[in-house]
Specification:
Layout lengths: L7 E4 L3 H12 L6 E3 L4 E3 L1 H19 L12 E5 L4 H13 L2 E4 L4 E2 L5 E3 L12 E2 L12 H11 L3 E5 L3 H7 L6 E5 L11 E4 L12 E6 L9 E5 H14 L7 E4 L6 H13 L2 E4 L6 H9 L5 E3 L2 H15 L4 H11 L4 E5 L5 H8 L4 E8 L3 E7 L8 E4 L4
Parallel strand pairs: 1-11, 2-15, 4-5, 4-9, 7-13, 9-10, 14-15, 16-17, 17-18
Antiparallel strand pairs: 2-3, 6-8, 12-13, 18-19, 19-20
Amino acid sequence: MDDPDPPVLFIPNDPFFRELFSRHVHDPEACVIHDRASERSVTPYHFLVDILQTSDWIHRTLGLGEQTPNSDNVFVCVLVSYGYEYAVTVFALRALGLTAVPVCKYYSSMNPTIFQNTVSRPLHLVPNLTCGVHGGLAEAILPEEFEHFVQVCGATSLITTTPREDHAKSLLVGISLTTLTIQLSPSIAKPWPVLRNSPQVPKPWDPDRGAILLFTSGTSGPPKGVLHTHQSVYTGAKEYLETYRLTRNDRTLLPWNSHWCAGFMMLSGCILAGAYAEICPTVFSPAWFWERIKAAEITYLHLTPGLLGPAIEWYAREITHQSLQDVEEYLAGLKRLRTLITGSIAVPASVANFWIDKGVRVDLHYGSTECWMITGTDWREFRKFTPVGILNLI
């Protein structure tokens, strides 16, 4: 019997997918995401296949028809922990033109408001569910919060994973939502799909559709839900990677929650740049961090002072008392680290100087959920406030 013809998957007309496809063509063995929770490493091909097959599955399950509606945004709640499955889910929704609404690690506040990035007028009311910025994350949204959320933002469905099915059921008591449970296979079934650019005129990429709904930290006022358009996400990621010169040759750690603005921006920037991203919130600790540095593979980092402080303390307490040879191995690994980004809150001089004294460039990064990055500034020039990059607010 002849082998069946492989299925053909067409690349969406979207800059993120075009970059992934280009990465696949020019460096098919490259790793774009390494999920440290499952130790799953995926190539651009594997990532694209999972995204496009998941996109097709969502399309068929939700009965979207031939085309995604072009008028109103369609909100889909995402109850998926940060990791590879989260990345696949969010970008599968992007491929369909649907709006991802992460609802995994939020806690509530008061005074719901939502604004669309690039548009001054409010669009909808949503509950103030906000993700902790510097730690102290609540693990689950409460049922009453979720019910209110569904009512005011008009979410039509929820995507979750098998480990979170019980939590999803508890949220959906008395609520009628279509629920999908994503299950990704560790390997791609044969015959392996063929990736191609569409031979026909591709469906126009709609930059004004909502891509993701994220929430502010609440540090400067009541938390707000911010609806980022496809153009906003693309521009923010592009400015980020260009400002910090993120390339396909870089390897970085992503311990932040991608349900928070900065975490999602870093994930998006890495994908757009084709960099090697290690998603590691479940394993990140000072000891683990220094072992990754010692391996001399990490070239770029973006970490808050809240993560850098314990790492410095660990170095002083545990590493400086090791043999000279061991200490030199850690310092040799640091030489691979060309840039360290920190900020979001006040950065103590002692934190920045620790890395600068070891030859690492330190940049201060500040931004907001409403407009991604505002400025990146070389720490050595911070008193003069000489920015290395400022986001084009759109």
